[in-house]
Design brief:
10 helices; 7-stranded mixed β-sheet; 255 residues; 11% strand; alpha/beta; 2 domains; Rossmann fold; 7 strands; DNA polymerase, domain 1; 44% helix; globular
């Protein structure tokens, strides 16, 4: 997969049966910067709901994100906010900045096995974004924050256990693509093959904090800044390997 990223030695994809994709900053490029819109609406929601200045609301938004995994989890635990009110408000954004990506759709189609979306966002948001990218119909299902009962998001072990149980996933035979390195720590602990979508160029704290690595850490097996060509390279390598195994004259008796 030269030219599309870098990888730790000895961790390929030939054994993968289930392909798991995060949504935001993964299925679309981080350069779309949807999170600037979402962040603004979260701040506005908090300011209105808790009667705070917008500046104080944004401070609280960041605090709850880092302390509770998502801003919503903190608002539910500490203020009794109704999750649907929050999610409907913050995801009412302009998706015009998200472009269709037929290259990604074709690459996902070429992967053998099941494909799922696993997101801390809402299903409605995931469906709208995936449809805009042009990949919604490629996925068997979307596992979202509602399925996680709002207060146990990624990267919690409970979130991953709920996900793999709900879909009957064998973790060591699954690969996951995510822009947040800390989400991949839990995935790695369960035996998944991990792919980090490197968004450090955007400069957001959740992407750059602790991620200035000279080499990939143990919990990240692969890194890429461009999802579509990376997935296409995976699919091509798997197809080439399968073709080689079926080549005429090859002795399969030892397999």
């Amino acid at each position: 997969m030269s030219g599309t990223g870098n990888s730790r030695p000895g961790r390929g994809f030939g054994h993968i049966e289930t392909w798991v994709f995060d949504l935001d900053n993964t299925l679309y490029p981080a350069e779309c910067d949807l999170f600037s819109q979402i962040d603004h609406r979260m701040g506005t929601f908090i300011a209105k709901t808790l009667d705070l200045s917008l500046e104080d609301a944004h401070v609280l938004r960041k605090q709850y994100y880092f302390e509770h995994g998502t801003t919503l989890a903190g608002l539910i635990r500490l203020h009794g906010v109704k999750p649907h009110d929050f999610l409907d408000y913050v995801h009412d954004i302009d998706l015009g900045v998200v472009a269709p990506n037929p290259e990604l759709g074709a690459a996902i189609d070429a992967l053998p096995g099941r494909k799922l979306v696993f997101t801390n966002g809402s299903r409605n948001h995931a469906e709208a974004v995936a449809a805009k990218v042009g990949v919604l119909d490629r996925f068997e299902d979307i596992f979202d924050i509602h399925d996680l009962e709002y207060v146990n998001p990624k990267p919690s072990l409970e979130a991953f256990n709920r996900f793999v149980t709900a879909h009957g996933i064998v973790a060591p035979r699954a690969a996951i693509f995510d822009d947040l390195p800390h989400n991949l720590e839990t995935a790695h602990a369960l035996g998944m093959t991990t792919v980090w979508i490197d968004c450090r160029a955007m400069g957001r704290p959740e992407h750059v904090s602790g991620a200035d690595w000279a080499e990939l850490p143990e919990h990240i097996h692969h890194r890429t800044e461009a999802l579509a060509p990376f997935v296409a390279a995976i699919a091509a390598a798997i197809a080439e390997e399968a073709e080689g195994q079926e080549a005429p004259g090859r002795d399969h008796s030892a397999q």
